[in-house]
């Protein structure tokens, strides 16, 4: 397993924060990150959080939990499939106590039982397992889900609640071994939190609501929160209120009877994790440190001091390659034959750009905050808030199509960004769109790949898990990348009635983890497929439509990165641009024998300039007005 190797950004993180966790006294905050580290912050003065220590895993760190019986003990859960138990001294001196045996998949969440000697781990394999922190011994199976288990919370009475992508909420008592109580929802549940008294369990629903449940999983009330999925919940210490992080990029404050108290928006915030201690709220960030807010007023107390620039999207604009980043910068690179060239940066916003599309001289960007931005070379404009992040964009038949986390196609007028139509398209987030003559392809978390226009669409194939990306080679071939660790590729046919069909579909094997991005090169009769994975590998396959069995033994690693790969873009039939979250950019081409090779290597960190501060402030003001 390769180890994340990202350069440190000052005293903070080098990539977005995945989790925040306060020690019970509020004096320490642990932040976890995609950069594979956990930073311990002194939050005794919450207006000036100070880093004390940095802990490392091999892969991204998904969660942490402070021991309820010993305030110097911290558990950290990672995509390296381990949970580590640390002792963190008051001055930041840390020692590793033990590492739990490797799990079969990434660990998404961890929680201590009240005795401080046992802890529950939940994993992407759907299992919840009970462990001894004293000697690292496995104790028991504590539950299971049919899909990824996303979060665990333990009540003051020792009841264990787990939630998952299968929509299951389960409550069990590991001390009695009784059958768990369960409640099933129609869609994914990603967050849960017991109130401090243990009387209520808050469940964050994919439809944007939070249910408050009893320990018997009876609904006390349903609180509408957001137009997009609710992701994380944290309770005030006296259980009188709670804070919700949602995929609309906002923090939502409610009292226990469901009255909205505050709504906090900041494009830099990533509210997949929220924590509360005393009167301070901590939340994750796409920047290099945590955001801290006042629980009573919702006012900002402290914010991170530096951006991270992980690339999320690529587009072609004339002879420029455009790179959309976590910081809101769009970096334009013009290269010449020697591999050097000019670089310019434009700050579209100060939060993540998830998608890019171009139409002539106009550049469009979809944001995590749920806006589409338009830059015509001189003027930056924004749509109104669209209600959910926009991970995919394409231009089709004179209309801008935005794919959202809510599974919708939003048809926007390109010149004004006015919303023309909202279409229920997929049963999950529309992760990727790509234009083909006469229509466009879409890939979504409902496991499907489809083709057609905005309304009349045909399913091409399904994967065994969510689909991250889809790519095309003209109108003759398509490929898709999935969390099921495979790439599918097939020939495309469009019938006279306008429906699309896929033939000779092949499944390509190689990556040991989720495949994030994909592209096609060469000729549709014998295409080359390249794909990038969360396992840091760039893979390549030569497709033979007449020998599907060859795919079981085909494929090779073309290059390795220092983090997962994020996005790809076919520049010409013979070249593809590839970007990784480590900031590395490769141009892949075909040699004289039609085999893929690395033509050019760049690094985003070396390309960035430092003159974007003024534009960033303008972009924040613009998007605030548009909201």
From TrEMBL:
WD repeats lie at residues 10-42, 54-88, 100-141. SMART domains: WD40. SUPFAM superfamilies: Quinoprotein alcohol dehydrogenase-like, WD40 repeat-like. InterPro entries: Quinoprotein_ADH-like_sf (IPR011047), WD40/YVTN_repeat-like_dom_sf (IPR015943), WD40_repeat_dom_sf (IPR036322), WD40_rpt (IPR001680). Keywords: Repeat, WD repeat. This is WD40 repeat domain-containing protein. It comes from Streptomyces acidicola.
